[in-house]
Amino acid sequence: MKNLRLKAARAAMDMSQQQLASAVGVSRQTVNAIEMGDYNPSVNLCIAICRALGKTLDELFWPAAPENVKP
Amino acid sequence: MTAMLFGLGIVGGLLLVAIIKLIKGHKVEYDERQLQVQGRAYKVSFYTLLIYMAARAIYSLTDAPVWCDEFTGCVIGVCLAVTVFAVICVFGEAYFSLRNNRRSYTVILICGAVSNLMLGFAAVAKGNVIADGVLSFRSSNLVVGVMSALVLGAVLIKAHFDKREDA
Question: Residues B17-35: what's their mean pLDDT?
Fold first, then answer.
C-alpha cells in the first residue's frame, strides 16, 4: 500500500526524496520504496523520518481506520 | 609449481585488499533495506553454491569424463555464487553503499572485466586453457572475466532503467 501521507508531508516541506534520504541516512531508493509501499521501515527509521518532516508516527505511518467499520 | 604460484597470487590479492581496508578504515554503509536485500541475495547465492557443489559431487560419482580440474571447478562455483549475489544486489539497489561513487566503481568493474577477459583470451590463443582434455586452472581469468562482465552488464542495465524512470 502506497504511503501517500509521507509523500505529501515531504512535498509540503519542499524536500526531494534525495534530501529526505540524506537527512535520515538512507538511500533515495529506500525512501522511494517506503513511499511506494514496497518496503516496511523499522521503527527507528520511521522515527527519523517523522523528526525530519516534523510529523508524528500516527500522522505518517499509522494506518487509517477503514471507513465502513461500525463502532 | 605454477598452480601453487597461482594460488599464492589469489591469497596475496585477498591479503592486500584486507590490509588496504584495515589501513584506510573504510567503512561501507548500507541502509536497513539494502541489508535486507543483501540477506536475500546471500541466501540465494548460498543455495546456488550448494546446488552446484551437489551437482559436482553427483557428477564425480558417475563414469562421465572429468571436464575440469579441482581448482577450476571451485573457481566456477565461487564465481557463480558471487554473480548471483551481485546481480540480485544490483537490481535490488543494494550493490553500492551510501558512500560509494557509482561511476568509479563501474570503471573498476570495467577494468576488472577487460583485463581478465584479455588474459583469458590470451590463454585460449596459446592453447593453455585445456590440458590433457581437461579445463585447467589457466581458464580462471576467463571465468572471472565472464563473472565481472555479467555484473557489469547488470549494473549498466539497472543504470539505464533508472535513467528512464527519472526522465
Answer: 80
Give me the interface pTM, i.e. the ipTM.
0.83
Query: With contact defined as beta carbons under 8 Å apart, do A64 and A2 qualify?
Result: no
Among the partner residues B29, B36, B93, nearest to A29 by beta-carbon distance: B93
Are A30 and B31 in contact (CB < 8 Å)? yes
Is B131 in a helix, a strand, or coil? Answer: strand
pTM score, two decimals? 0.83
Q: Which residues of A touch B36 (CB under 8 A)?
A: 39
> Per the CB < 8 Å rule, is A27 touching B32?
no
Average pLDDT of the residues in B99-123: 89
User: Is B33–A25 a contact, with Cβ atoms under 8 angstroms apart?
Assistant: no
Q: Indicate if the pLDDT at residue B77 is higher than 80.
A: yes
What ranges make up the beta strands (E) of chain B? 130-131, 134-135
- Please enumerate in sequence order all residues whose Cβ is within 8 A of that of A5, keeping only pairs 6 or more positions apart, or say none: A59, A60
What are the residues whose beta carbons fall under 8 Å from the beta carbon of B104, sequence distance 6 or more? none
C-alpha grid cell, residue B84: 548471483
